[in-house]
Amino acid sequence: MQKFVITEGENMTEKTLNNNQVVVAGEIASEFTFSHEIFGEGFYMVDLMVSRLSDAYDVIPLMVSDRLFDVNESHVGEKIMAKGQFRSYNKHEETKNRLILSVFVREIEQLDEDEPEEENRPNQIYLDGYICKAPVYRMTPLGREIADVLLAVNRAYGKSDYIPCICWGRNARFAGKLQVGEHVAIWGRIQSREYQKRIDNDQVVSRVAYEVSVSKMECLE
Questions:
Q1: Closest CA to 148 of 186, 195, 115
Q2: What is the pLDDT, as a whole number, of residue 176?
Q3: What is the distance in angstroms between the CA of the first residue and the CA of the last residue of the chain?
Q4: Which helix (H) or strand (E) holds 54?
Q5: Residues with Cβ < 8 Å from 156, sequence gap 6 or more?
Q6: What is the pTM of this model?
Q7: How far apart are CA 148 and CA 133, in angstroms?
Q8: For residue range 131-180, what is the model confidence (pLDDT) as tens digits?
Q9: Taking Cα atoms as reference points, which of 207, 200, 166 lies closest to residue 61?
Q10: Which residues, 6 or more positions from 210, have their beta carbon under 8 angstroms from its beta carbon?
């Protein structure tokens, strides 16, 4: 097993590093594709297939530095564990912005092929941030309680990542009462969800949304 670690070229405080933590383990499901370059350092996107406790799985996009991993070779089917932060940026499409989410990888570790999958949640995320939009509480036709939360998580240099979260049951009831600006901590996992978007009267396209499925939430301060 090999482990690679990279330090991003930002002088971040320990608090900033700790307010957005992701650990995911799974199987590489795509080739690396070029995203962008900063000061000679190339960043590439790759999809990671992460198993759920059921037979289902999530496909999570990772952003990986070419100084961290050999992005010029195919690694499809290889098992890895990645640690980093869940980040967002706005991509302008037609007349509006679309929120793009991915895991910015700081550490990556190649796992042995015959090593069993982690039994202890290979998909974990912790976020410390602020409610930046009024939560939306609702009930499904089957009576299940759901709340949608948008969390702003601070980053260095005055930047923030905007992370959509979904709460269930008693977490949904709790979240539905939160006010914009409240400081909260969230634990959960990253999930992918395919949906259909109508472009016009004749065209419907399939897209994938990424969000944090919340297992625990508490107010801070």
A1: 186
A2: 94
A3: 41
A4: none
A5: 10, 11, 12, 13, 16
A6: 0.87
A7: 10
A8: 999 999 999 999 999 999 999 999 988 899 999 999 999 999 999 999 99
A9: 207
A10: 60, 61, 101, 102, 164, 190, 191, 192, 193
